[in-house]
Description:
The chain has 308 residues and is mainly α. The chain has one domain (14-141, 188-299). The chain has helices at 3-51, 55-59, 61-78, 110-120, 122-138, 142-160, 167-182, 185-188, 191-204, 211-241, 250-254, 260-298, and strands at 82-87, 100-104. A two-stranded antiparallel ribbon has the order 1-2. The longest helix has 49 residues, at 3-51. The model has no long low-confidence stretch (mean pLDDT 80).
Amino acid sequence: MSNLEKILEFFKTVSITTLSQLFWLFGLLFIIGFILYLIARFTRTTYVKTTGSTFDVFVTGWIGTPIHELGHAILCLIFRHKITEIKLYTPNTTDGTLGYVNHTYDSKSIYQKVGNFFIGIGPILFGAFVIYFLFYLLVPNNQEVFGSLDYQSKILIKGIHGKFNGIWESLSKSIIYTFNTLLTKANFSNYKFWVFLYLAFCISSHMELSPADIKGSWRGLLTIILLFFCVNLIIIGLETLGFSNHLGKWWHYIKLDSYALSINKFIGMFGAIFIFSTILSGLNFILTYIGLTIFSFFKGKGIVNPFW
């Protein structure tokens, strides 16, 4: 193998390693984000075609929008961005804006540039956290459902490790069990459960990312990609040249793979919560669609097409 071929093979290894790590860490988040966007769009279209453009803004937006914007704001603080203006809930019928967070950052700071990604996806992260907290606070049999979510997280960890055999069947059964455990007669007879459902529907319906959120995230993601690529370039380069052998046990602390077990547990648990939030958003869409389609029939408009 010529030197050029060795160099090309080296960069190929670095690139594949970088992409696989990024998919490992953020792949599920991108998938969930896309699904949430579609569900929110379908729900919004259903409302617009039956009740007008403002009804859902007041039904779910007064809770969902502030949580959405707080997701941005909290991550701004964590990544040391300066918030110049924040509106948690100010519906604008002209441009459709419900709220916003304007912020600035030091373009020379890698930390703050990386923060753009997490600030952009803040509504998904914070929304999932709030739903989890409300779930713990308001659902009577939360421990039973938590057990199912924990099982889902373990299934997702298997998927992360590439063990896809039977994963979809196991995951679907676990999800069905979760909702069978959640949607019980005892829960429905408890007012706290109804409060949880309403709040969860409001929050999950507004966890989707706006075009502005996605645009901001891309700036941070590009920085993350370059950062991972450079780190892998150094680590794989040291391994290739044999320098890693001289670092002894310290090499273990340098490689990202050494933290895989802890990272997988974190990704798995958050993944289960993301899936739970997504299903709640989907359930909200289904119930909304059924209710508003009946309403549409009474108005003589027929079946509603929520897709376009």
